[in-house]
Amino acid sequence: MFQPASLKGISPCPIDERIRKRFLILYILIILLSFIPCSLFEYFYIIYFWEEGSYWLFFLLLPINILILAYILQLSAILFSFLFLTILRLLHEPKEGKFNRNIKDKDYLYWNLRNLVKKWPLFITASIPFPWLKNRFTLRFFGTKIGKKCICDNSWISSEFVSIGRNVIIGMGTTILSFGIEQDNFILQKIIIEDNVLIGAKCSVMYGSTIKEGVKLSAHSFTNPYQVLEKDSIYIGHPAKLKS
Amino acid sequence: MDNENESFKIDFLSTSGVYKTPFTLIIFVQLFIGGIILIIINLWFINSLYFLLTGNEFYAFGIVGEWYFWLLLPLSIYGNIFLFAFSIMISSAGIFKLLNKLHPPREGVFEKGSKDWKYMHRRFWIAYFPIWLARALPLPWADIFVYRLFGVHIGKNVVAYEGYIDPEFVEIGDFTMTSINICIFSHLIYHDKLIIKKVKIGNECIVGPQTIITPGTIMQDRSVLGANSYTNIGQELKSDLIHVGIPVSISFPIQTLEESIEKADAIKKSDHDLNKGGVN
Fold first, then answer.
1. Which of A31, A91, A94, A139 qualifies as a FRET site for A234, CA 20 to 30 Å off?
2. For the CA atoms of chain A, what is the radius of gyration?
3. What is the nearest CA distance from A64 to chain B, expressed in angstroms?
4. How far is CA B232 from CA A109, A171, B49, B120, B212, in A?
5. Burial classification of residue B107, based on how many CB atoms lie within 10 Å of its CB (0-12 exposed, 13-18 middle, 19 or more buried)
6. How far is C-alpha B121 from the geometric centre of its chain's CA atoms?
7. B144-203 residue pLDDT tens
8. Residues 53-112, chain A, touching B (beta carbon < 8 A)
9. Measured between beta carbons, which residues in chain A are less than 8 angstroms from residue B19?
10. Strand, helix or coil at B73?
11. Does B125 contact A62 at a Cβ distance shorter than 8 Å?
12. How far is B181 from chain A (nearest CA, A)?
């Protein structure tokens, strides 16, 4: 809500440096492609409104123009990254499990590539100053299920293997990580958050944990990997324990 | 616990959150106010500059190839950004005050969907865009300026750049420092209720990193809140002490450097003696 620019809630998508170096061209290509619809829109805007006798209309519509420009940039970034994402998914299907943290491991390589493709639209979504079509809109395109009437725009939510139910409140600065690193292993495990859950500020929900319906997770606590929080109860602590 | 005599107790600490209501469309109004002020002042400025230098009042739309135009261009871009941001900040502070006249904000516990709940959302959506702009600007004092406009009392020489701060019911004294990734909440969601209570931070306080200050917290002068801790609702942090805990339960005095060095030396000595004893 009122966060500084350094805490604007961009989804976590870290990329291995070796892979980032090799596929930098792909990243730049997505950025360039996403600017093409913007420049097209701007061209037509100037052509239609920059005419003698109607300059006032050009200036009057300028704020709207900027707003539409921001959303065109966001939507085109989502579109192009979604195209590349589907290609990557066809090449190698994303799946959960324990993998080797090594470029030769195909799952690890493709997870990094998916992050590389998703980074730009996620950055754009987090940077847009308007409160509509925020993080949850973009995350839905990338396979994260997020229900209606959620508050989840001030938190860092992973873009894969997360499903969030209806009427969920996720607090400020909470991280929801569906991936983790254990020494030489790389783990991808689904997080399920059911309906009517309330997660406090600055929590962290680790990979593989399931939060059942009506759970209240107190602020500043974290869940262990693979932890299951039982229905309609309050959890507090490091790691989260049932409050009696 | 410190808040035993408090009338309202909570069994878990949640978060502050604001639902998206149709009132978010107020951002269109703010955008238009900013844009129109920007355009009018620009047109007037360019026209008068043209008149000054050429003696001709007519302003032809199109890029003028004169040297002074290009010389003043960087200044113009900077000036336009600040003009846009500050006109939006000041105008939306006016809208904020008008809304407060309609329904004065008050402290208490409110149901979801009640009138106070609705007006709280309206106030927050008015404050959203100007605060975003202030925090995106490169000026370090812009966000303190905008918080002061919205009625948050912030003293002089305050560090408050790197955290969430609610735009109402917050009071921060002189020479206070707040660290990175802090949350100062003056309102809290609790089940289906909304708690609004005033936060008071005194003079020369220090708020450590990753902390949450909940509604009703009173930090007295020169108190310190340690890293990674949060306060209970309505908790009072005594002055000249360091407070730590989740929620705050331990407090110990602030030491001078000499005192801490002395204590460290004493501990080192005793450890040394113990080791000797163990060997012998």
1. A139
2. 20
3. 8
4. 45, 17, 59, 22, 9
5. middle
6. 17
7. 999 999 999 999 999 988 889 999 999 999 999 999 889 999 999 988 889 999 999 999
8. 55, 59-60, 62-64, 66-67
9. 149, 151
10. helix
11. no
12. 8
A6 touches chain B (CB under 8 A): yes
**Cα separation, A171 vs A199, whole angstroms:** 6
**CA gap B126, B19 in Å, rounded:** 13
Reading the block at residue B120, the tokens are: 């709280």
Going by pLDDT thresholds of 50, 70 and 90, the confidence category of residue B256 is confident
Contacts of A49 in chain B (CB under 8 A): none
In the numeric block, which tokens belong to residue A147?
């229900």
The side-by-side arrangement of strands in the sheet containing B193-196 is: B108-111, B193-196, B187-190
The structure tokens listed for B84 are 């846009």
Number of domains in chain B: 1
Please report residues of A whose CB lies closer than 8 A to that of B180.
6
Contacts of residue B164 in chain A, CB cutoff 8 Å? 1-3, 7, 154, 172-173
Note whether residue B195 is domain-resident. Answer: yes
Considering only CB atoms, which chain B residues are within 8 Å of A217? 12
Q: Is residue B219 part of a domain?
A: yes
pLDDT tens-digit readout, A28-86:
999 999 999 999 999 999 999 888 777 778 888 888 898 999 999 999 999 999 999 99
User: A238 contacts in B (CB within 8 Å)?
Assistant: 246
B273 in any annotated domain: no
Which amino acid would we find at residue B39?
Answer: I
Q: Which of A149, A170, A218 sits opposite B13 (nearest CB)?
A: A218
Place of tokens 């909304």: B194
- CATH code for the domain in which residue B124 is found: 2.160.10.10
**Interface with chain B: mutation pick from A1, A2, A52, highest number of B CBs within 10 Å:** A2
Structure confidence by residue, pLDDT tens digits, B118-128: 999 999 999 99
A244: DSSP letter: -
Domains of chain A: 5-242 (2.160.10.10)
Tell whether B268 is covered by a domain: no
Name the residue among B17, B61, B164 with its Cβ closest to that of A2: B164
B18 to A130: CB separation less than 8 angstroms, yes or no: no
- Three-state DSSP class for B111? strand
Q: Which residues form the domain of B55? A: 22-250
For residue A2, give the nearest of B24, B136, B167 by CB distance. B167
